[in-house]
Write a structure and sequence with these properties.
globular
Length: 261
C-alpha cells in the first residue's frame, strides 16, 4: 500500500510538471478599467487552450509600449492603431498590431455646461496631449462645428492646425489620464472612454457630444514583430474574438465600449 501511494505521488508530480511545461505563460499590459476587465474574461478562455495570462495594469499610455519593447511584457492591450503607429515612428519600437479589440468612442464632458452651444467665447477646452488622441479630440471638436482644421491636418492634427475658431476657444493639452480631474478647472474636456469610466463618468449619460461609432480608432493587441506568428498570439487573439467576450462587452458597457472585431 505504501509503495502504491509513493508511485502515485511520483506519477502525479510528473504529470503536474508535464502540464506546466505544456502551458505557456505571458504577461499582458493593459490600462486600468475596461481593458483590464475585458482581459479578465479572456483569461479563462485562453487558459483552456493552454495559455496562462498575467494581467499587468498601467496608469498611462507611455510605459506599456516601452515595457513590451524591452521584453517585460509579451503583449499589451490599451491603444488604437494610430497611437501605435505614432509610437513606432517616434520611438523606433518594433511592435505590430496582432488583432483588433474594442472601440472606445471619445466624448466631450463638462461640469459647467449642458450643451456645446452654451460654451462662451474664450471657453477652456482640454484635450489629450499625445499626438494621436489630441488629433482625435480636435477632429471631434471639428465634427461638432466648434473649430475648423487646415486641409490635410489628418489624424495627427494639433492646436496649430486650427485655422478657424469662431468662439476663440482656449485649447489646453493635458495628459489623457488627468482629463477627468480637469473638469473642475476647464469648461469642457475631450476624454478617452476608458479614463472616463475609471473616473466614474458615464459615457452614455454624461457626454455633451460623442464620437460616431465608425471611428477609425479601433483598439488593438500589440506584440513584438518577432512574436507575431507564434502560436500563443493566435491563441490570445482567438480567445478575445469569442462570442462570450463580445457579449460581455455589450452587457457590461452598454454601448460605451463597442466590439471592434
Amino acid at each position: 500500500m505504501l509503495r502504491t501511494r509513493l508511485l502515485a505521488a511520483v506519477f502525479g508530480a510528473a504529470a503536474l510538471v508535464a502540464g506546466s511545461a505544456s502551458a505557456e505563460s505571458i504577461k499582458i499590459g493593459v490600462s486600468a478599467g475596461p481593458h483590464a476587465q475585458i482581459l479578465e474574461q479572456v483569461k479563462p478562455i485562453a487558459a483552456k487552450q493552454g495559455l496562462e495570462i498575467q494581467i499587468i495594469e498601467f496608469t498611462d499610455y507611455v510605459i506599456p509600449n516601452q515595457a513590451l519593447s524591452q521584453g517585460d511584457l509579451q503583449a499589451n492591450s490599451f491603444q488604437h492603431e494610430p497611437y501605435l503607429d505614432n509610437q513606432v515612428k517616434d520611438r523606433g519600437y518594433d511592435l505590430v498590431n496582432a488583432g483588433k479589440t474594442v472601440v472606445f468612442p471619445m466624448g466631450i464632458y463638462s461640469k459647467k455646461v449642458k450643451t456645446l452651444a452654451e460654451l462662451k467665447d474664450g471657453a477652456k477646452i482640454a484635450v489629450p496631449n499625445d499626438p494621436t488622441n489630441g488629433g482625435r479630440a480636435l477632429l471631434l471638436l471639428q465634427a461638432q462645428g466648434l473649430i475648423k482644421l487646415r486641409d490635410g491636418a489628418g489624424l495627427k492634427a494639433s492646436p496649430v492646425d486650427v485655422k478657424d475658431n469662431p468662439k476663440k476657444l482656449q485649447i489646453l493639452e493635458l495628459d489623457a489620464a488627468q482629463l477627468p480631474r480637469s473638469l473642475d478647472d476647464v469648461d469642457a474636456a475631450a476624454v478617452n472612454t476608458n479614463y472616463a469610466i475609471e473616473a466614474g463618468l458615464d459615457p452614455n449619460k454624461d457626454t455633451i457630444a460623442k464620437e460616431s461609432a465608425d471611428s477609425p480608432y479601433t483598439n488593438i493587441i500589440a506584440v513584438r514583430k518577432a512574436d507575431k506568428d507564434k502560436p500563443w498570439v493566435a491563441t490570445l487573439v482567438n480567445s478575445y474574438h469569442t462570442p462570450e467576450v463580445k457579449q460581455f462587452v455589450l452587457d457590461k458597457f452598454k454601448g460605451a465600449v463597442v466590439p471592434g472585431w
